[in-house]
Specification:
5 helices; disordered N terminus; disordered C terminus; alpha+beta; 350 residues
């Protein structure tokens, strides 16, 4: 039990809990000087709704509709078909969309954007889960958001993607609202942010490119509506970034049974975060002033290009979401657990 408690403590610290730089000198300099606003939202989050639809049992992603006010989209993690649920702020399902020709192998994330050519909303569904790390490629489905909220079967464009080195598990999917570029956030002890090609192809597998680190065990991610920041959720907290590798701050999140989803509100001033489970809750967490959109803020083309450019830590292959001391401690604890298991097996056999 002591070993499990230690492992949980390490995960909590490495996933984004405030860490004392004096107590742990190995914390990266960029993180040491990041604003310590983890408590900024404490006591201010509020319960918005609980899912009322009994079909929504494992909500594994949230996306605020860019065209339908007061609507969020969610998907089930497993045990469901290729369905997207449009849910109002009272928790009631307004419409259910079935994605024709899609396979719900391990749907883990959903994002929303606006097509600049048509002004219509676009839904992106990530079939990106891979718990065993065995799938040679993953899939993302692009669907035009319906203009009216009623049950419908929708056609989708499927894009296949793969990582540059090996298969990985992932639960974070986000789309930059200005550039339209797709990003995948891996769910690992030393996670990463991966950028898809600027132009996605349907006639071949698209190769992802690592552009920055991600916190330990990321469960969802989303871009702000104006593209000025993005958020990565973990089981324990949320981290806000200006660009890959450029941390703004960390935020404490309301306690949830299994934190699996996060998105920005339509006005970009707060986050919505949810959990798996029947009738699971969705909370609203206000953003600190430093992370809220500014009326005059408009990313320049050069800034947009930088968001897709690998950071120094990405090029050097280091700087995952977990401090080095935490990874070393985790490795030591894991080795100790393996040794203890081996001893138990030996005694049982002899």
């Amino acid at each position: 039990m002591a070993l499990l408690a230690a492992l949980a403590a390490v995960c909590a610290l490495a996933a984004g809990a405030p860490v004392s730089a004096a107590a742990h000198p190995a914390v990266r300099p960029a993180e040491r000087h990041a604003p310590a606003l983890a408590a900024a939202a404490e006591g201010r989050e509020r319960l918005v709704f609980r899912f009322r639809d009994p079909r929504i049992r494992e909500s594994s992603g949230l996306a605020a509709s860019p065209t339908h006010k007061g609507i969020v989209y969610t998907i089930n993690d497993s045990g469901d078909g290729p369905h997207v649920y449009a849910v109002g702020m009272d928790g009631r399902t307004r419409a259910t969309f079935t994605i024709a020709g899609a396979t719900a192998r391990d749907w883990e994330a959903i994002a929303a954007s606006v097509d600049p050519a048509t002004g219509r909303g676009v839904l992106w569904i990530g079939d990106i889960g891979d718990n065993l790390g065995t799938w040679p490629d993953i899939s993302v489905y692009r669907v035009a958001e319906p203009r009216s909220l009623r049950d419908a079967t929708l056609r989708a464009t499927r894009y296949r993607l793969r990582y540059p080195d090996r298969p990985r598990d992932a639960e974070g999917l986000m789309v930059h609202p200005r550039t339209g570029r797709l990003y995948i956030v891996s769910k690992e002890f030393s996670g990463s942010v991966y950028a898809a090609p600027a132009r996605l192809r349907t006639d071949r597998v698209n190769v992802l490119r690592r552009v920055g680190p991600a916190p330990m065990m990321a469960t969802d991610a989303a871009y702000a509506p104006d593209g000025s920041s993005f958020v990565i959720r973990t089981y324990f907290s949320a981290s806000l970034y200006r660009a890959p590798g450029r941390l703004i701050t960390r935020l404490t999140m309301p306690p949830l049974d299994q934190a699996e989803s996060i998105t920005y509100t339509r006005d970009g001033t707060a986050l919505l975060t949810g959990s798996e489970g029947a009738h699971s809750p969705v909370y609203r967490v206000p953003l600190p002033a430093s992370a809220r959109p500014k009326a005059t803020a408009s990313p320049t083309p050069s800034a947009l290009r930088r968001t897709a450019r690998p950071t120094a830590s990405a090029r050097q292959g280091g700087g995952g979401g977990a401090p080095r001391w935490a990874l070393l401690l985790w490795g030591g604890l894991a080795a100790g657990a393996a040794g203890l298991l081996g001893l138990i097996v030996y005694r049982l056999r002899h």
